[in-house]
Structure formats: structure tokens, C-alpha cells
Design brief:
Elements (H helix, E strand, L loop, with lengths): L7 H18 L8 H12 L4 H12 L3 H9 L6 H4 L19
Helix pairs in contact: 1-3
Length: 102
């Protein structure tokens, strides 16, 4: 299992998601561990509110292919179009920094 390290933009988005989820559900999430972040993302992936959903998709779009694959493996709902992001699936075309899941 890889460690998840997010960029500043995604850390900001995660903090906004925490406050939005607290406002909608009353549940306070912390970002103190990878398990807590994963739990937040699993919950947010299923929320129907447009504001939460759009922020969640912005978070996903800023991830690397490796991070998307890792979160999918942890049970986070990833839309199918993001699972086709360049670098996730092996192809016959060589790419620099390509990621091939094992």
C-alpha cells in the first residue's frame, strides 16, 4: 500500500470537503491519517449534493494516475472516465512516467 501525498490544492479541497460534509451531515472528519482521508472520500463520493460532487471531482482531477489507482483499490468511488486517465492502463505506446498497475 502506497502512502498518499497530496499537493497543496488537494489539501485545500479536502479541508473544504470536511466543512461541507459537517454542514450537510453533522459528522466531523479529521485529516490526521490516511484512513480518515479515505473514509471522507468514500463518504463524499456517494453524496448527491452538487456543490460537494463538483468539489470532489475537482479533487480527483488533480490526482496523479498512481493516486487514482491507489484510492480505487481502497474502495473510493472513482468515475469511469477518470479511470481512463493517461498512464493508468498499459498500452503499446511507450510514455514517460507511465504507471502500470501490478
Amino acid at each position: 500500500m502506497e502512502r498518499l501525498i497530496f499537493n497543496e490544492t488537494n489539501i485545500f479541497i479536502l479541508s473544504k470537503l470536511v466543512s461541507m460534509v459537517k454542514k450537510e451531515t453533522g459528522i466531523r472528519h479529521k485529516l490526521s491519517s490516511e484512513v480518515a482521508v479515505t473514509t471522507l472520500l468514500i463518504e463524499v463520493a456517494d453524496m448527491p449534493q452538487e456543490s460537494v460532487s463538483s468539489l470532489y471531482h475537482r479533487f480527483l482531477e488533480n490526482l496523479t494516475p498512481e493516486q487514482i489507482h491507489e484510492l480505487k483499490g481502497r474502495g473510493v468511488g472513482i468515475p469511469e472516465h477518470l479511470m481512463k486517465k493517461r498512464g493508468i492502463f498499459p498500452t503499446h505506446i511507450p510514455r514517460q512516467y507511465a504507471f502500470i498497475p501490478q
